[in-house]
Amino acid sequence: MGNWLKTLVNETGISFCLVGLPEFAELIQVDSQIARRFPFHYQLNPLTLGTQTSPGTLYPFLKEVSHRASEIQISFAPDFDNFLLRVQIYTATKGYHAYVMSMIRESMAIALAENRNTITINDFGQAWNLGITSFISKQITNPFEMSLSSLASTLKKEYS
Hints:
Number of strands: 2
Distance between the termini: 42 Å
Strand order of the largest sheet: 1-2
Helix content: 40-55%
Order of helices and strands: HHHHEHHEHH
Number of helices: 8
Mean pLDDT: 90
Structural class: mainly alpha
Radius of gyration: 19 Å
Strand content: under 5%
């Protein structure tokens, strides 16, 4: 079943980290040789939004992204200190790391294609319109076009 994976691990001598959804973790256990090669399992929980006064885990994650982007002269306007932008990103991605990064990458690509080094809410909105988070976000209205009160109402309905 996973001979290709065992061969890849054995022949490259490189350390590997498999990442996936929890429902696929049991597939690793089907083959004892694969299970032996990947004995440690860690759950990576979605980033949390928090509040304006007590930010969750999304805020430091985005701040690090912003810091790394600034090293290549990319900026965000507004920056990630803006609570509305964080709520919009959270609503679009449900805090899943990969989707947050997909939104950021696509937004950057949109801005760079227009020869801009500043990523705006409009760029995030265009990225959302591409449907890159549609698998996890059942949001119909583009969150990057919504007000904070509309987003709060949407999140309240979703989590109640």
